Amino acid sequence: MTSLQSSLRPVPRAAWWIINVSLAALFLYPFWVVISQSIKSPAEAAAAPPTLFPGSFSWGNFAKLFTNENGGAGFIQQLGNSVLVSIGATLLTIVLSTLAGYGFARLRFRGSNLLFFATLATFMIPFQAVITPLYLVLHQIGLTNNLLGLMLVYTTFNLPFGIFLMRNSFAALPSSIEEAALVDGCGVLRAMVRVLLPVAIPGVISTALFTFFASWNEFFAALILMTDQSKYTLPVALNVLSSGTFGTLDWGALQAGVAVTIVPCIVIYVLLQKYYVGGMLTGAMK
């Protein structure tokens, strides 16, 4: 029996590795195509058929994407808009979801469970279903075609999940920590900020990552709510570029833009993944 098991064991293990390596290659291949196309020279990037590996390294496609010289797309303003809106929505979501999550977890009041369920129910409403009334509301308060309005929209749609994560993060902490802080003279708000929040930091980081990624890659709301091209975010600007508005489709510049949208998300996730996983597991267990 032992010899039979030892003879069969290498086969499943080899199959396991073959399947995993194949899946990794399947998912990494598109990413490699984007990166290799973006670091080719503009002439090589436009060559047909395309080559898998760049013949020479060049920043020319990135220069054409962000400058107006020599027919460049000049998307530096759109990149700044994406950074501003994503960071602003992330900060707003963190502050509001932290306060709301603490309230739902620690300050029990009549109807709190029903209100929490109603908050989560809004997460299930598709954005496309509310785009028209949302546009009318923004128009009435003068925030259409405005980056602040877009920032508030992203905050609104990421807030239910953020509240869910932060509520579970605070609920997972022992109440004795907060009680000790209150006995030592801290107020409720100070106990939350100075004592509970540092312990609940995985939930904060998970909320921040989720909101930043969603806002950074969001396309539909920015396309509908922004009409001035100078206020487009990078995903909308890349869609304009892919449609050939600026002339013949520039594959090199387009792939450079896609790389710019991908790389920050990967770097941030790799740096903060242990907090992200911890925060998501906390939300899953409670």
Q: What do these coordinates show?
A:
The protein has helices spanning 2-8, 10-38, 42-45, 60-66, 76-106, 112-121, 127-140, 147-171, 175-183, 188-199, 201-217, 220-225, 234-242, 251-285. The protein is mainly α and 286 residues long. Helix 5 runs antiparallel to helix 11 and helix 8 (147-171) runs antiparallel to helix 11. The model has no long low-confidence stretch (mean pLDDT 83).
Secondary-structure map with pairings?
Blueprint: H1 2-8, H2 10-38, H3 42-45, H4 60-66, H5 76-106, H6 112-121, H7 127-140, H8 147-171, H9 175-183, H10 188-199, H11 201-217, H12 220-225, H13 234-242, H14 251-285
Helix pairs in contact: 2-14, 4-14, 5-8, 5-11, 6-8, 8-11, 8-14, 9-10, 11-14, 13-14
Tags for this model:
single chain, 286 residues, mainly alpha, 14 helices, globular
List the total number of helices.
14
Mean pLDDT: 83
Instruction: Give the class from helix and strand content and strand pairing.
Output: mainly alpha
C-alpha-based Rg, rounded: 24 Å
What is the overall shape?
Answer: globular
SS strand fraction: under 5%
Run of helices and strands: HHHHHHHHHHHHHH
Describe the sheet with the most strands.
Answer: none
**How many strands appear in the DSSP assignment?**
0
What distance lies between the first and last C-alpha atoms, to the nearest angstrom?
44 Å
Q: Helix coverage percent of residues?
A: over 70%
Oligomer: single chain
Q: Point out poorly predicted stretches.
A: none
